[in-house]
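Course assignment 3, question 2. Fill in each field.
Student: A.L.
Task: Predict the tertiary structure for the chain below.
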Amino acid sequence: MNYKSDHNFHIPVMGLAFTVDSPVKVARFGISSVVSIIEDRLIEMMRRHYYPSINKVYEPITTQDPDYRAKRITDYLNLLNTIVQEQMQRIKSEAFAYGSEITKYFEMLPLESRLRKLYFEMLHCMDEKEKINKQEYLRSQLVAGSIDVNILTKADRETRDTSGQLIPDGTEAVSALRGYIKSDLTNSSIVFSAGLNPRLYSYLENYDAFDPDENFNVKKKVIIKVSDYRSALIQGKFLAKKGIWVSEFRIESGLNCGGHAFATDGYLMGPILEEFKQKRKELSDTIFEIYKPAIKNKLGFDFQSYPPIELSVQGGIGTYEEDKFLHEYYNVDSTGWGTPFLLVPEATTVDKETLNQLAAAKEKDVILSNYSPLGVRFHYLKGTSSDVKKEERIAKGKPGSPCTEKHLAFNTEFTEEAICTASHQYQKLKLAQLSSLGLSEAELKKQSDEVTAKECLCVGLSNSASIEYNELFLKNRKAVNICPGPNIVNFSQIVSLQTMTDHIYGRTDIITNPNRPHMFIAEMRIYITYLKEQLLKDALKAMDSKRKLYYQSYLKNMRDAINYYHSIPENSIQQRDVFESELAQTISSLNDIENTYELKLEKPILIAI
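Answer field:
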C-alpha cells in the first residue's frame, strides 16, 4: 500500500486559526498540511464546530477536566482523522465524472506524476473493460495527505493547579505534545519549530509512538524546523541519543517567511541549502551513529541501515521555476507554500474582511514588526481589525489587552506570576515606570511606543475561525491579526485550490506583481533592511568593538552569499540577467553600509564553524 501521495509540496502551519482545519479541506486530495495545537480554547471551539459533520453530539471538555488541554487536542486530532477517512471513503466511491472530487484529485497532481498520466490514459481508453480496470487501480492508489501538527517550542509556559502547585509534565508545549501522542493519527508528524527545548524533546522518550519496528517504520514521525545546518546537527544528535529519529529537517528562511522570524547572522538561504546538499549524507550518518546504539539499548534492534532523512524548504517560494529549482538543484523532497495559500479559502481559514485585506496588500502594508510578546520579530499585516483596535485603546489611554489565554505570559519584571507584555496589566505598570525615570520627552515617547506596540496574538490569530464559522471564541473580542510573509504582495487574487496547485506545478501563473524579485533576492533585501535597522539602533548608543565585529561578520556572510549566487549554473535561475543586475544592486547597498558605519574589513575574519 502506498502511504504517500505524489504531491511534492506541503502547506506549513500558519498562525493559530489559518491552518487549524486545513486537513479537512485538502487532505482528501493528497495534500499535507500542518495544524497548530497551542491554543486549546480554539481547539475546543473547532471540536464544537465539526462534531455535527460526523453526526455526533459534541461533548465539551472543560477546564475542570484533568489534563483538559491534552484531552482537547487528542480528541480534535481524532476528529480530523475521522473526517478525512470518511472523505477518502466517499471519494473512492465516486464516478470519474467531470467536476467530481476523484477527478480533481488526479488533475491536481504534478505533471510528472505517474498516476496523473495513468488517469489521462484512462480517460482516453476505448476498451471498456480495460478502462474499468484502470479506474479500480486508480481508486486503490488514493492517499490522504498527512495531518501534521506544529508545536512552537518557545511557547512552553508552566501551569499550576488550583492550589498553586506546578503540574508535573503540565507545561503548555508538553501537554500539547501529549495530546498529539495519544491521538489516533498515523503516517503523521510532529513539527517542532523555534529551537531546541530539552524538556519537550526529552518527553518524547516516555511513549513508544516514535519507536521504530524491526523494519524502521514508525507510527508518528519527528520533523524539526531549522534555519541552518548546525541547528539540524545539534537537534538531530540530541534526539538520537534518546532513541528518537528525525525523519525530516524543514529548512526555513530566517526572515523571508510568515509569522515569527528568527534572523540568522547574515547567512542566506542559498548557501544554507548548499551546505545541506553537500553534507546530507554526513548529517544522516552522524545522527545514525548516535541513534544506532541508543535504539539497540532501548529496543534491542541492531539496525545496519537507516531510511533517508528528508529535506524540505520553505520561505518566500512564489513561482513554478523557483519550486522546480529547489527540487532539482538542491534535491529537496518537499517545498512549503504558506503565505500564498492564505488566499485560498478551500485550503485555509481566513475571515472575509481579512482575506480582502490580504488580496489588496502592498509592500508598505507588510512589516517585520516588534509586536510579538515573545520578543521575537513578527511579520504583520497593518490595518487589520486588531491593529485598529490596538490604536483605539492607546488613544483612549488604555493600552494593552485583557490576557485570557496566557500562552505568551513570560514576563516577571513587576509580578511574581508571569504576565504577558501585550497585556493591559503589564503595559500599565511599564508605562508608569518609564514616566518615573525622568526621560526626555522624545525618549519617553520612543520607549512608550515600544511597550504599547506589543499585541495579543493568542486571540488575534484565532479569531478568523470564530468569525468565519460564527462560533464563539471569546465574548466581545472579535479583532483579527494575521502574519503573512512578504511574499503576499506578489499575489492579489483569491483563487481555488486547483488554481493554486496549477500555479505551483506550472500549469498557470497567478503572480500579479510583474516586478517580483527571485526569492533569493527578496530574502537579501529583507536582511539588508534588517541590518540597517539594527545598525541605526547601535550607532545611536555608540557601537562597541564586539558589536562591530558582529556586523563585519554579518556583512561577510552576505558577500559570501552573493559570490555563491554568482556560481550557480546560469540555466538554473530564470531571467538570469535580471537576477545578476539585482545582485549588483545588493553589492552597492552593502558597500554603502560599510562606508557609512566604517565596517570595511582590513583583513578577512576567521569564523569558527
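Instructor remarks: Residues 604-609 have pLDDT under 50 and may be disordered. The chain has three domains: 9-94+143-317+325-333, 350-492, 517-596.
Grade: pending
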